[in-house]
Amino acid sequence: MMKRVGLLFLSTLLLLTGCLGGDELEKEEKIVQEKGKKDEKAIITGEINTGEKYYRSIFPFEPGGARGVIRYGVDNRLDINEFEMGLMRIAQDTFSTDKYFFQEGQILNEPTVTNWLKRADEEPGKSKSKLDQTGLNPKLGVKVDEGDPGFKDKMLEANKNNPKYLSYVLEHNYLVQSGDGKVKLGGVVVGLSFNSTYYYDVNQQGLIYPGEVKLQREKVKQEAQKIAGQVASRLRTDPKLKDVPIVFALYQEEERDSVTPGNFFASGVVKKGSNSVSSWEDVDEDYVLFPSDAASKKKRSDYEKFTTFKSKVQEYFPNYIGVIGKGYYKDGNLERLTIEIPVQFRGKAEIISFTQFVATSALGELPNVPVEVYIGSAVDQPEALIVKDETTQEEPFVHIYRK
Q1: Residue 251 is inside which H or E element, if any?
Q2: Fewer CB within 10 Å, N side or C side of the chain?
Q3: Which helix (H) or strand (E) holds 259?
Q4: Is the entire prediction scored with pTM above 0.90?
């Protein structure tokens, strides 16, 4: 008999509270959080049992100073999710989930992040932060009156020759419990997201002229490390960040309409007492779409297993069933597989039967890695969820949505 668990709100819970733990939430641990001159009661969330490590959080919840701004800088929702979640994954190399607690960034506010995304020759907006507000993207290099007949062509060319590289700056704080029972800032992780294609518009008297330029990977890497150095110097001017390690993670987005997210490509640490990254380490991460020509050429064995799984699933119904997979690779090895199966169902009995078939029969054809299978109707209505968290797990967790 398959195990069934209600996982409807699992993603939210994992982000806020997750970390390896027992079968039940551990007893919440009350501490005192130091906030300015005021001692404030706070709670460290308990641990939950998941297949991945997540940081415990501090309550009451303190929203980040630039909360929600990311959607204006990063176009693809897949990139937003991967950038945020991947940043916590990279943080674990420096800040242990057993010792440190997660908090959204409290140093960078919305005006500062917005100003940093501008060009170096643009006028920054007002900000109460004392950090340098100068834009971090290259100067446009030209000034042309909008009424000039050559305005459009000159501006399109200038943007093409001087593309914006930096698309977003994301800050995460990691707190550590001090000897007196309070918590204090123990470290900061800063994610810098960069374009793979720079999309831009030139507005001339109400008419919009779009343009785009694909950025070279090596040039992005070069600009990324230079910008990270500038950010590190700026952050060190804040008294709160004077003596804590700062981790930088560099991320490159995919195209706007990509069905897979981009990936982190480098990370580095600004050690205590330093103003710069001592050395950069390459991050070997990638997302591969199944089925695709790229998967067939680069990941042949996994591609063949997925194809067998897909064929088995499609044999269940006489009508066509689309099966799409996304594999997450680290250091060349498949670490996780996410699959979406949209089907035109005729009733709940069909959903239950089909889910049972996928979980007990077809799932065994896939590579032996953590797998998530999302089964939905043709109108994007979620119908069932299958989760196989660990490679040693004999039976997957299954949830059938009642609505």
Answers
A1: strand 246-252
A2: N
A3: none
A4: no
